[in-house]
Amino acid sequence: MDNKNYKSGFVAIIGRPNVGKSTFMNRIIKEQIAITSPKAQTTRNKIQGIFTDDERQIIFLDTPGIHKPHNDLDQYMDKAAISALKEVDAILFMTEAGEKAGPGDKFIIEELKKVKAPVFLILNKIDLINPDEMMPQIDEYKDLMDFAEVIPISATNGNNVDDLIDSLTKALPVGPQYYADDQITDHPEYFIVGELIREKILEDTRDEIPHSIAVVVESMNQRSAAGKLQIEAYIYVERDSQKPIVIGRGGSMLKNIGIGSRIKIEHLLGEKINLKLWVRVKKNWRDDPAFLASAGYSL
Ligand code: GDP
Ligand code: MG
Ligand code: K
Question: If you measure from the C-alpha of residue 229 to the centroid of ligand 1, how many angstroms do you get, rounded to a whole number?
């Protein structure tokens, strides 16, 4: 790459749960890497997505939510989110278009005031509202802090996303292309596979299984005689009563979870797999730092 004006940098996406951070990132990298779901707080870890073309490379960090911590997992999430902000070249603070700033947004803004990087206010989901509804919101946010720019987008239909990339590029330093053109994430596949399984469980069990669930991929390095990749994973629930819900009548729920997860994983990896799942009870795993570390959430 001999383009002297080539730009590159790291960009954190921050915002309350469900504003559309993962959806935005999926759109950017055109692959399902970050996990989206209609439930809050599906993303627990920093997942990188990388946008590359011949003018720039932007490395996105999808941060977990910042909120008042209640346990070790929450505290880990807050630490990860706040530390991500100190290492980046720009920040996208995402909110829902037309919504007033709530206590969660104000808490994040107080953190954003402490960092040097330029902050772009992103009003997502403009497809859901009339443009007039954004004006009072923009005034309110501008009173709370100075933003580099205010950019309305729709992460689902892609409206204005190109403009956002261009504005963001102006804020990045001249720099090298850090990652190969075809690299879209540097996140370990084990973790991403675990997140895909977890996403499928949350979809299938609806509100019966809250977020007290963890998936640990034990192995994905063996092949069957026919050459199929073997993936083995444990699903951890917090209470005895949750185990039969995940397993279902005669194993039907677990079977569905297995089929659905397998399809997502095959799509991600681009090859056929065999998937084996087990369900285990692990009480209070959220407050067990050793367990969190083994599940990939290093403290
Ligand atoms: P996150 O918690 O911030 O990562 O939010 P998600 O990306 O998981 O999105 C939460 C919900 O909002 C999902 O149901 C998305 O489909 C939906 N969503 C995200 N972006 C948009 C958008 O631009 N328009 C609409 N209508 N829905 C969106
Ligand atoms: Mg998310
Ligand atoms: K979500």
Answer: 32
Question: Predicted ipTM?
Answer: 0.96
- Can you name the CATH fold of 7-171? Rossmann fold (3.40.50)
> What superfamily in CATH does domain 189-294 come from?
K homology (KH) domain (3.30.300.20)
For the CA of 25, the closest atom of ligand 1 is 7
Q: Specify the higher pLDDT residue, 1 or 133.
A: 133
pLDDT of residue 289: 63
Spell out the residues 6+ positions from residue 173 whose beta carbon is closer than 8 angstroms to its own: 7, 8, 9, 89
Q: Give the count of beta carbons closer than 10 Å to the beta carbon of residue 190.
A: 17
Residue at 85: amino acid letter: L
Region of 214 on the Ramachandran plot (φ > 0 left; ψ -120 to 50 alpha; else beta): beta
pLDDT of residue 66 exceeding 80, the answer is no
Distance CA 115, CA 124 (A): 23
Asked if residue 37 has its Cβ within 6 Å of ligand 1, the reply is: yes
20 lines ligand 1 (CB under 6 A): yes
Give residue limits of the domains in the chain: 7-171, 189-294
Phi-psi region of 234 (alpha: psi -120 to 50; beta: other; left: phi over 0): beta
SS (H, E, C) 174-231: ECCCCCCCCCCCCCCHHHHHHHHHHHHHHHHHHHHCCCCEEEEEEEEEEECCCCCEEE
Q: How far apart are CA 172 and CA 169, in angstroms?
A: 5
Please answer whether residues 49 and 69 qualify as being in contact, where contact means their C-beta atoms are separated by less than 8 angstroms.
Answer: no
* Ramachandran quadrant class, 260 (left: phi over 0; alpha: psi -120 to 50; beta: rest): alpha
pLDDT of residue 30: 55
3-state SS assignment for residue 111: helix
